[in-house]
Amino acid sequence: MTRMERIGVARAYWSFDCTRMMKLIPLVFAAMAFVAVSAAEPSVKPVKADVPYVVGGHERQVLDVYAPENAKGAPVVFWIHGGGWQQGDKSDVGRKPAFFMEKGFVFVSINYRLWPKVEMEALIEDVAKGFKWVQDHIADYGGDPGRVLVGGHSAGAQLAAILCTDGKYLKAEGLTSFAMIKGCLPVDGDTYDIPAMIETAETRQRVHGYPLPTTGHRQKFGNDPAKHRDFSAVYHVAKGKGIPPFLILYVAHHPDNTIQARRFGEVLKEAGVPVTLYGGRDTHHVKLNDDIGTEGDAGTEAVAKFVKACFGK
Predict the structure, then answer these.
(1) Closest-CA residue to 244 (of 157, 178, 158)
(2) What's the predicted TM-score (pTM) here?
(3) Region 36-193+232-311: CATH code
(4) Closest CA to 304 of 152, 149, 68, 103
(5) Residue spans per domain, the chain
């Protein structure tokens, strides 16, 4: 399936009425994993591409660095692509590198190994290893490792959220706090509370007489309910952990992603973590992400306001 075909599937998803939607639920959930991959080409080139963040590691354990000329002590964006944990690429960043570079940021986009070739723990561990590389090396590109914004889209939103709430992955890399993370920007994730997502999706199938998914969230995150909780950011939020401020972007008319965003936002707020929610209208899963960095886009304005609050830029 080409990128344009995937986008067509996404647009069709939003246009069907409820009756036709229910008949297509199994296809829709499969398609969502594919349309998470961005169709927008980067508007700038990285200053360094395919940098290994694991010595002698897997071919996907690499990252790209985008940096303004003469950058020095610049804050850093650490970006995690989407793709249903099964596909996607660090080049799927659209206008974001140019947008952030104009604000004086260094932008880093990473690849990671993919399910089902590796288990979900390995994906999160890869993200943490990429983040450790930033801590050790981003100053060579003019970045400040002590001021990082972590963000991601779709599957990358879940990975960003867990990195910023469950400290064990950073601790495994010798990083004992969230102090260097000044903000987190998950974009249209549906798995901040994985047990809730599994129950919602499977109940929807069951009550309408459709078969349960064979490659759904239950399979991707393992059959152990304890793992479902452990991979869910909502269960790691607590007062006093130093969790950074969040801006949670979501598609306002998507019921699952909306309720997941609101639930996560409420948990963060209860723990005293600064959180802002932005529900995008007249958009869809791919477009919300691709439009970040577009002049006049409301989601971009929300991001700019959040960045200014976190970094003063």
Answers:
(1) 178
(2) 0.88
(3) 3.40.50.1820
(4) 103
(5) 36-193+232-311
